[in-house]
Amino acid sequence: MGDTKIVKTTCSTCGSCCEVDAYVRDGKLMSVEGARNTPLQSGGMCAKGVAATQYVYNKERIQYPMKRVGKKGEGRFERISWDEAYEMIAENLLRIRKEYGARSAVFYAGYPKWYRPALLRLANAYGSPNFCTESSTCFQAAALAWRSLYGNGICGPDMKNARTLLIWSSNLYHSNTPMSGMYQGLKKRGVKIIDVDPRHTVTAHDADIHLQLIPGTDGALALSMAQVIIEEDLYDKEFVGQYVYGFEEYKEYVQKFVPEEAEKITGVPAEQIRLAARTYAGNGPASVMFSASPIVHHINGVQNYRAVFSLIALTGNYDVEGGNRTQPGPFSPANEFGKVRRYDGEEAIGQKDFPVWFDLSCDEAQCTKIADYILEEEPYPIKAMFAMGLNHRMWPKPGHLLDALEKLDFYVNVELFMSDSSKAADLVLPACTSYEREEVHVGRGGRFFFSNKAIEPVGEAKNDIVIIMEVLKRMKQRDAAISDEVLEGGYDAYMQHILEPSGLTLEVLKNHSEGMMGKNLFSPVVKTYEKQPFNTPSGKVEIRSLVLERYGESHGYEGLPVYHDYRTETEIDRTEYPFILNTGSRKPQFFHARVYRMSWLANIENEPLVDIHPEDAKRCGIEDGDYVKVVSPAGEITGIAMYNVMGEPGIVYIYHGSSKGEANELIGKDYVDPISGFPGYKGYFCRVEKEERR
Ligand SMILES: Nc1nc2c(c(=O)[nH]1)N[C@H]1C(S)=C(S)[C@@H](COP(=O)(O)OP(=O)(O)OC[C@H]3O[C@@H](n4cnc5c(=O)[nH]c(N)nc54)[C@H](O)[C@@H]3O)O[C@H]1N2
Ligand SMILES: Nc1nc2c(c(=O)[nH]1)N[C@H]1C(S)=C(S)[C@@H](COP(=O)(O)OP(=O)(O)OC[C@H]3O[C@@H](n4cnc5c(=O)[nH]c(N)nc54)[C@H](O)[C@@H]3O)O[C@H]1N2
Ligand code: SF4
Ligand SMILES: [Mo]
Fold first, then answer.
1. Which ligand is nearest to the CA of 133?
2. Does 115 have pLDDT greater than 50?
3. C-alpha dihedral over 445, 167, 544, 145, to 10 degrees?
4. Residue boundaries of the structural domains of the chain
């Protein structure tokens, strides 16, 4: 290992930006491990991160700009120069803008978050209201539910000071590995932990109280806890009296959910509901940890989360130490959002269907129905897609989206891999991984660090932001009005721009491999509401939402956090599809569609597994390990049955993103929450049959 060097850099295989030591020899990445001698890093890494060399040197990596030569979707490409690629983009985007208007071009980002502010700037400079992302299925619906109540961005749990933590719901050992050490710390400190999860996960195993509910019944459970809290006089009368709008109607409504009734709906024993309610309300300060996805991956998701979030106001745990509070400590300068606003001079896609999304100013358009918008030219023609990390498999009925992409006049995908979504494009551009680029980051506690380039980019891959900057430049050469001060400054200036609020300079940070504390950290404040009203129409916490009520007649939205049961209020014949289908609960070795191409990870489960309770399986004549067909009203896939007793009978769990059996083929494309547009990934219906074919 004579000339092996260690480069301080970052893993971004899942976007969590763990600091790592990269071992590099002769310009080649040999291996990685968690950064040593770095505050708050243990030296460990998760399975996905450790497999970095298989990610970086994957045979599916796109090496050069590639132009389609075959028919659309055929996947035949030829190598072109970057210059040619940029000219092709500028020419096509401007031609389409001239013919159909700027709104006919969509600027799209998949899961990666780090380049989004720059892409939004590009969309704004071009003049399109249609900047949209994968967050049309992730996080934003939870944020919307929160904002409808409190009028601000989600307030995270203040775990350092909490005596009770209500996890609703997250399986952080699998989905947020960097946080698992902190979770163990809470246990040691004696914090009472309540976990709400239909499966007995490792996280649930460590909790003091596990509320094992039926998926998608979260609203009924939260309303029932509220019923107990009010009935037993455990609520914060002062806070409620002064700051809550709609309490009397809510109080009356929750009476329908006495624990014995809620038990029938949720499957959680009444006494457990009472115990959880008493613990959360009585052993304060208490905070709620939320998740970006499972609750809102239901067609009743927004109202269910509104019911959960209402508990915070009810118990006076809003913006107090140990509760859910406006973010103390450092801002996140690595994320420029909030500073750049989406251009909203024209109607965006999704605006008619999901108006509250826009009223509550989610800074992007709602694009779950984009395939329909393209195919039907409603509300207007969409002709171009400039995408960075577009993966069609993440959406319900992925084949439908692929058809739509092929209908576009011009579709570019900037990607790491020649995925099936890339194969449908007119032009694919090679992006680079975090090992191949420089970046600035902010870590926990307000510590900033500079991530070095460990290796030169594979082939001719480039940093996404550099690509965005060059696209802007080429468009500006044709139309001087297309401009953006930040994107025109070059990449170093961009990093400095991001650092600006921290008071640090790029030069100084580069020379401090251990990182530096930001200078302008603001000190935590509590009870902000005593100084300024809530940013809602009533100025109070709206348990009864006036924004939702605006659309009572047109869209059927209700102001209270009402509970609707997707199992009974459905036209789907449950005798045909007796099981609840829950897709996408995170597995530690997988990350959506991206890492199946890495054999170290993919070989752990070679075929899609269909997790089924043995009691259900036996009734269907299915043995553990049998090939099975899963059939839903929307489609069918095959996989291997795995007996699993983590959940209760009646529910089938499948991970998504596999080309060998894509769970999303089973989800109906119109099966969405009417408020947020989020698909019901975790509460659809299916049956399972033994597959005789193999
Ligand atoms: N390894 C890995 N980590 C990831 C990801 C990944 O793909 N792989 N994805 C990232 C992304 S995009 C996200 S959004 C986060 C998600 O992060 P998490 O929310 O923590 O992850 P999930 O496993 O999707 O869901 C957590 C738990 O919710 C439970 N659950 C399912 N349905 C319901 C329900 O209806 N109600 C309740 N109360 N619980 C339910 C599941 O049993 C599961 O144990 O994970 C991130 N981290
Ligand atoms: N059935 C079901 N479907 C789901 C979910 C579920 O739970 N169940 N979860 C939903 C949720 S919460 C989410 S967040 C979405 C995630 O869905 P996706 O956006 O599909 O997530 P990924 O596959 O992780 O990433 C998309 C693409 O980005 C590429 N990429 C990675 N890094 C970079 C980069 O730096 N630059 C560029 N240009 N490209 C890059 C990857 O190669 C990948 O092809 O899936 C949703 N779909
Ligand atoms: S959690 Fe794993 S994959 Fe994600 S950044 Fe950290 S090491 Fe990489
Ligand atoms: Mo997500």
1. 2
2. yes
3. 60
4. 66-134+332-437+455-513, 156-325, 579-690
Please report which ligand is nearest the Cα atom of 590: 1
pLDDT per residue over 281-311, tens digit each?
A: 999 999 999 999 999 999 999 999 999 999 9
| Token code pair at residue 370 | 């984009």
Q: What is the mean pLDDT of residues 589-596?
A: 91
Percent of the chain residues topping a pLDDT of 70: 96
Burial (0-12, 13-18, 19+ Cβ within 10 Å), 433: buried
The answer to whether residue 329 scores a pLDDT higher than 50 is: no
pLDDT of residue 338: 53
Report which protein residue has its CA nearest ligand 1's atom 24.
585
For residues 11 and 20, give the distance between their C-alpha atoms in angstroms, rounded to a whole number: 6
User: Which element (helix H / strand E) includes 334?
Assistant: none
DSSP tag of 616: H
Candidate of 62, 133, 134, 595 to mutate for ligand 2, largest count of ligand atoms within 8 Å of Cβ: 134
CATH number attached to the domain at 156-325: 3.40.228.10
Q: Is the CB of 18 under 6 A from ligand 3?
A: yes
**Span 596-604, mean pLDDT?**
93
Distance CA 221, CA 199 (A): 16
Q: Ligand 1 atom closest to Cα of 585?
A: 23
Ligand 1 probe mutation, 172, 583, 586, most atoms within 8 A of CB:
586
Q: What's the gap in Å between 175 CA and the centre of ligand 1? A: 6
Q: How far, in Å, is the centroid of ligand 2 from the Cα of 592?
A: 6
| Fold held by 579-690 | Barwin-like endoglucanases (2.40.40)
Is residue 16 within 6 Å of ligand 3 at its C-beta? yes
Which ligand has an atom closest to residue 646 CA?
A: 1
CATH for the stretch 66-134+332-437+455-513: 3.40.50.740
Q: Which residues, at least 6 apart from 77, have a Cβ–Cβ distance to it below 8 Å?
A: 66, 67, 68, 69, 70, 428
Tokens standing for residue 685: 């219906």
Query: Which numbered atom of ligand 2 lies nearest the CA of 416?
Result: 42
Nearest residue (by CA) to ligand 3, atom 3, is: 49
pTM: 0.97
111 C-alpha to center of ligand 4: Å? 7
Identify whether 285 is preceded by a cis peptide bond (ω within 30 of 0): yes
The helix or strand, by DSSP H or E, that contains position 261, with its residue range, turns out to be helix 259-266
Look at residue 178 in the predicted model and tell me its pLDDT: 76
DSSP string, 473-511: HHHHHH-TT---TTGGG-HHHHHHHHHGGGT--HHHHHT
Within 6 A (CB) of ligand 2 lie: 110-112, 134, 137-138, 293, 297, 388-389, 391, 394, 414-417, 419, 431, 464, 583-584, 591-594, 656, 663-664, 681
For the cut 60, the answer to whether the pLDDT of residue 328 exceeds it is no
Q: Do 139 and 115 contact (CB within 8 A), yes or no?
A: no
Atom of ligand 1 nearest to the CA of 215: 35
Mean pLDDT computed over 390-399 = 96
* Contact present, 521 and 329 (Cβ < 8 Å): yes
- Quickly state the pLDDT bin for 521 (edges 50, 70, 90): low
Q: Of the ligands numbered here, which is closest to the C-alpha atom of 14?
A: 3
**Rounded to 10 degrees, what is the CA torsion of 548, 553, 556, 558?**
40
Q: How confident is the model at residue 666 (pLDDT cuts 50, 70, 90)?
A: very high
For all residues of the chain together, what is the average pLDDT? 94
Q: What is the pLDDT of residues 176-206, one digit of tens each?
A: 887 888 888 998 999 999 999 999 999 999 9
Greatest Cα-to-Cα distance within the chain, rounded to the nearest angstrom = 74
179 lines ligand 3 (CB under 6 A): no
